């Protein structure tokens, strides 16, 4: 594996492409199959501009389905979604949505730099590209300046995850959707990447909706934690995480952090049981 010797840099802060309105989910329901067995039921949620919101809940409660609806990859049966006043389709067309799926979807035949360039090349328009960032700048900020011309197979799992996250940051999206991006990594690597994500989010203040099974991850990253019930998924509680920002790597041993963890765990248990990872 290739060792990264370059220190992670801070990006120069930039205004997000859209700064008003936020992300609004209004009464969204979704089912599957001929009988439309419900997976999501009457989800209503507002995510303020520049905030970091995490969704947590039992397996099968529709967390990933909701994220795919926000990304425009699935359609709701009822309800509506708007992203900074735009429809999801228009937000996708304008490259205002960044999506990090559980599967990284890096192209093995393209090197690191070309993988990060790819979203800027697809359907590129002058006005859409103007909102993006230089891919090489982004990769150096994520500590990947020494591996720009390596291929994904030559990188560790943590480094491949950095590439996937850098790829969406290069778009400078108004909304960043992340579906359990660290779930396949060991705990030590996950811990490092969580704090790196916090650093880069602090620089950019992109609006983030993040899905996880980990209570500690949810509390560390978030301004708010949305607790969902078992399927059909409903919002059981929204918990405000009032820990001071920026959050350093010692915040997880504080009394305030453990109190918030306990509150999230109790809310999850009220949903009739969930593994909290």
Task: Write the topology of this structure.
Blueprint: E1 23-32, E2 37-47, E3 52-56, H1 63-70, E4 78-83, E5 86-87, H2 88-93, E6 97-100, H3 112-121, H4 126-129, H5 135-141, H6 157-170, E7 175-179, H7 187-204, E8 207-211, H8 215-221, E9 224-228, E10 235-240, H9 255-269
Parallel strand pairs: 3-8, 3-9, 6-7, 7-8
Antiparallel strand pairs: 1-2, 1-4, 4-5, 9-10
Helix pairs in contact: 3-6, 6-7, 8-9
- Looking at CATH, the homologous superfamily is P-loop containing nucleotide triphosphate hydrolases
Radius of gyration: 18 Å
Overall tally of structural domains: 1
For this structure, what is the CATH class? Alpha Beta
**Sheet of most strands:** 6 strands, mixed
Tally the beta strands.
Answer: 10
Percent range for helical residues? 25-40%
CATH topology: Rossmann fold
Main sheet strand line-up: 6-7-8-3-9-10
Shape: globular
Query: Terminal Cα separation, in Å?
Result: 28 Å
- Write the CATH architecture name: 3-Layer(aba) Sandwich
Number of helices: 9
Order of helices and strands: EEEHEEHEHHHHEHEHEEH
Mean pLDDT: 87
* Poorly predicted tracts of residues: 1-8, 12-17, 125-130, 273-277
Strand content: 15-25%
Structural class designation = alpha/beta
